[in-house]
Amino acid sequence: MNLMCTESQTASEDRCFAEDRTIFRDERAVKKLLETESQYVPGCDYMAHSHSNLQPFMRRVVATWMLDVCEEQRCEDQVFPLSVNFLDRFLCACDISKTHLQLTGAVCLLLASKVRQCTALSIELLCYYTENSVTPEEMREWELLVISKLEWRIVAVTSFDYVDHIMEQIKWKRRNDSMLRRHMLTLISFCYIEPDFIAKKPSVMAASCMLSAIRGIDPSAAAEVASELCLLLACTAAEVDEHVSLIDALVASTTAAATPEKSENNNPASEPPVKKPYRVQDYGLHDGGGHL
């Protein structure tokens, strides 16, 4: 009997796994997430205690670079928040030089893609995205370092894990609206980029992103949805309101920064702004050796 598997995956095949909607309708799954999420929340302000002068903008630059890699490679939605969770927890446990920050981010992407994606990102590909400032040997060495500092606890709970549970269990007239889900995921990505959300609970962050998205799509349903979210995710209205205020301020500042400048006669520019390729090196954080 020949048991050899001759199947092969082509580059065009979808990396996404099949969903089981029954799990998302089961309240026990949400309760389990709530019970375990506190184990994976970064427990310190590592930028305040770092001896290597890590600054919030450095972490923001690296997190944005990580998101760009995930988007360009069309990774599973949960890869990015999980990789940032790894990054923050590792930096709480290990004080590193800022010249190793991009290397750490690349390793966290590697680990997250192995955990949450059918086809992991390759080491060579991640080295390419660092413009070869990181070598495969360094990636392999630091992969062992990161996973050991995380104590092999890599199946972490992130805000993404609550998204589909919320979409299935919150009752409103457009419950399965794909636009709402897309807005939630965008807001969650923004939150994981910003250092202000490092120590926030994933459940409260997910509830706040849901409510902020609802307010933009159907403001009349916001009050009812807010009470259901608090009941489902065992959080208070005050917690959610505080997070929503932070998210709204973040969106406002991001929108203002992305608004194209107008000419002196107040007419819009004749051509839309062109997004420049995102380069970590553009922020002056390189030390000449290639690392961030």
From TrEMBL:
> Residue ranges of the Cyclin C-terminal domain?
157-274
| Source species, domain of life | Eukaryota
Q: Output the InterPro entries linked to this UniProt entry.
A: Cyclin, Cyclin-like_dom, Cyclin-like_sf, Cyclin_C-dom, Cyclin_N, Cyclins_cyclin-box
Question: Does the keyword section mention Cell cycle?
Answer: yes
Keywords of this protein's UniProt record, alphabetized?
Cell cycle, Cell division, Cyclin
Q: Name one GO biological process term.
A: cell division
Q: Which residues form the Cyclin-like domain?
A: 64-148
Span list, region Disordered: 257-280
> Which Pfam families does its entry note?
Cyclin_C, Cyclin_N
Is the Cell division keyword given for this protein?
yes
Family recorded in the similarity comment: Belongs to the cyclin family.
Question: What name does the UniProt record give this protein?
Answer: G1/S-specific cyclin-D2
Please give the organism: Melanaphis sacchari
